[in-house]
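Retro notes
What went well: the complex prediction finally ran end to end.
Inputs used:
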Amino acid sequence: EVQLVESGGGVVRPGGSLRLSCAGSGFTFDDYGMSWVRQAPGKGLEWVSGINWNGDSTNYADSVKGRFTISRDNAKNSLYLQMSSLRAEDTALYYCARDRSSGYTAEYFQHWGQGTLVTVSS
Amino acid sequence: DIQMTQSPSSVSASVGDRVTITCRASQGFNTWLAWYQQKPGKAPKLLIYGASTLQSGVPSRFSGSGSGTVFTLTISSLQPEDFATYYCQQANRFPRTFGQGTKVEIK
């Protein structure tokens, strides 16, 4: 069974930094592209960033470009999101999501974690 | 960026009704589109990809169609478990973008 477990969320002050992690299991982690998708309280889904299977190709939403960095460690079956210069509008539940098919990056998201909540507030 | 606009934003329907949700893209593309269902407090669930291919395990009352700039999700006979919010998502270009969501409520 595919499992994705996010961690690292919390309360941070505006301008601060936070690192999210996502541990994958039940599948060959380095076969798949991975993404972060967020959802502000009571709002819709927003794709944040995606990374290909080996980490040499990354993409970002305009709203986080230059502030967030996605990375992965295939030896640890883990995905990361380093977030800096955080703003109130970054407050959201952050989901880790796995691509439906191997060989793609941020195509269709078949598997999702339960999310980790990030709150940016002074 | 490709903007995805869903209509309606919400719909009230009864069990057994046929429900259709439309997603319009600001730029045309082939069939690089997915539909997701999200229930309160839960992660989204992939229903349809490639605009019309049903994800394994999804009931056949769900169907998708369209290409270019207009796509539709149809629920042929609404069931109690289908009351949820539905999102479209384009996979044609980066950044990936979602529609704003359509909430299907009980009439």
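What we learned: The mean pLDDT of chain A is 97.
What to try next: split runs per interface for comparison.
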